[in-house]
Design a protein that fits this description.
mainly alpha
Length: 218
């Protein structure tokens, strides 16, 4: 494909990725609402259709990550083939690791359906439920952040997009590279782990629109 085609496909994949991610978070939050683990499992059992949609959206995100890895590599490979390849591998790894969350959701649905039927006692059900509902995505997010840092750096170095936009991408990506491993190791919790994504959102939406409308400079 041409650079223009890759840019437009990447812009579309960015928007699909963002929309699927936000929608899945909102749907799962509503489908698993409750004050205790038992209440959340009961809510999941009652909202199995919503959870099924979340699984489909997760698959869409994984496929979008693969598309982004390939298209961004195609756009930036002439700037630095090695760094571009590493960025692609990070985004592809993100997509492949993310697929493993789908079977986890299936097991959560099983646990919600079998609660109270004697298969497991209440203590075991609550312990397993608490673990599964934790839903830590720091590993896949770290792969995303490293790949994003590399691609944004190459876009900045090659002056392929507006300098200000590229710098926002670099800063937002590096911030995640610093914070996400700390979250994965258990040193960071709470609201900061959500707010740290706002700069990335401020970059990716305008970047996606730019790719769709303006493309990248050769």
């Amino acid at each position: 494909m041409t650079r223009t085609s890759n840019a437009r496909l990447a812009g579309s994949a960015f928007l699909v990725y963002i929309a699927a991610g936000i929608t899945s978070m909102v749907l799962f939050g509503r489908a698993s609402a409750g004050g205790t683990v038992a209440e959340r499992l009961a809510a999941i059992d009652q909202n199995r259709a919503f959870v099924g949609v979340v699984e489909l959206l997760g698959l869409v995100q994984c496929l979008s990550a693969l598309v982004l890895g390939v298209t961004l590599w195609a756009i930036t490979r002439d700037e630095d083939a090695d760094l571009s390849m590493l960025g692609m591998l990070c985004r592809v790894g993100e997509g492949l690791v993310g697929v493993t969350s789908i079977p986890e959701t299936q097991r959560l649905l099983w646990l919600a359906a079998t609660r109270g039927d004697g298969s497991l006692d209440a203590g075991a059900t609550n312990a397993l439920g608490a673990y599964m509902l934790k839903g830590d995505s720091s590993l896949t997010a770290t792969l995303f952040a490293v790949g994003s840092t590399l691609f944004c750096y190459l876009l900045l170095r090659g002056r392929m997009i507006p300098t200000v936009l590229a710098w926002i991408g670099v800063v937002a990506s590096v911030l995640l590279v610093v914070v996400l491993p700390l979250q994965l190791a258990g040193f960071l919790h709470g609201a900061v782990t959500m707010y740290v994504w706002l700069p990335m959102l401020a970059f990716e939406v305008p970047f996606a629109v730019w790719l769709l409308t303006k493309g990248v400079k050769g």
